[in-house]
Amino acid sequence: MKHNEPRGEHIKRIRERYQGGDKLKKTMILSEFCLTWSLDRKYASKLLNGTRGGAKKKAGRKARYDERLVRHLTVLWDSMERINPKRMKAAIPLWLPFYRDPEFDPNLKSQLLKMSATTIERFLNRGRKVIKGLSLTRRSKFFRYKIPLTYTNDKIVNAGHVAADTVAHCGDDISGSFAWSLTVTDRLTGWTENRASPSKRAKDVKIAMNSIEHELPFKFKSIQTDCGTEFLNYAMMKYFHNRTWPVVMSRSRPYQKNDNAHVEQKNFTHVRECFGYERIHDLSLVSLINEIYRDYWNPLHNFFLPQMQLASKERFGSRIRKKYDFPKTPFARLKLAPNVSEEEKAALDIRMKSLNPFELKRGLEKKLDLFFRLLKAGKNGKIAA
């Protein structure tokens, strides 16, 4: 070895002699090289054989999915109202026919359809303030004795057994006038409709309920509500009872939200996620809210966003193990309902084919942008253009 010779130069000088020598000669050269540079024999042999110093191979198996899918998945997830990966896995086949991106080639589409929910979650993690609302439910004492409690263990097999609740758009101030949202959801299929009203007086709630009933693709069979005065009153009793086929009314126990869980969970996913916890005191915006619900928000959820339903629940000591069914859209569940006629199913198919989820999403964003600009202008005392 030359004085102060770099190791790289030393390796180049003796490599040819090392590789061309026999076993005994290689052993001598390797021993001298290890002693000179204080190296491990295995590592030194790799240096002399030229198998070290190149591009390091990535450990583990070869990546199965293209990294470009992170961007496409993020776009889809945001368009799907940021639903969980299991629901997203079921929704992707419904959305992909409408997804237009010049960089989304058939190979990426094939990979995306093969992805599991866990992989989708992992990809989304590469690329989530809840304010508690005020409870404005006033119990009606007299009508508690006229409308029975709900039997929560009854199995639902037909569409039309609905649950209803109201949400106050009051912000953090319950004084004065503000808008309300009525939510009605089918307990079998999850089909949900919303309508806004200027108050929760029986007259206004009745108008909103009538609008929802005419929009639903099935007839009411029963309705389950809480003990609020907006439902337990003479006007609503007459509305549901004075018909050829009366609708059975039932109520949940006071302060027991789980009795009406089907609709309580929709109060967040179908109302708060759209309009948040803002105070909507300008009642002229009620018609715009209803347009958003009717033409954009509800069709998006009912036709293109799958839901999971509880299949079974078992208790093991202090733990409860829940199992959920495969995510399906309310539209898909409704088509399996035995009491929905073939004519109604055919009409639903025609409506489904006329919808595009990305167009619904774009229209929704435009209307919400207009809504919040008008709301802000009203708060600032300005006249919106």
Describe the structure.
The protein is of the alpha/beta class. It has three domains: 7-49; 69-126, no CATH class; 142-379, Nucleotidyltransferase, domain 5, CATH 3.30.420. 45% of the residues lie in helices and 11% in strands. The chain has helices at 7-20, 23-37, 41-49, 69-79, 85-95, 106-114, 117-126, 202-215, 234-241, 261-264, 266-275, 286-304, 330-335, 342-353, 357-379, and strands spanning 161-168, 180-186, 192-197, 222-225, 248-251, 310-316, 319-324. The strands form two sheets. Strands 3-2-1-4-5 form a five-stranded mixed sheet, sandwiched between helices. Strands 6-7 form a two-stranded antiparallel sheet. Strand 6 (310-316) and strand 7 (319-324) form a beta hairpin. Helix 12 runs antiparallel to helix 15 (357-379). The longest helix has 23 residues, at 357-379. The protein is elongated. Residues 128-133 have low confidence and may be disordered.
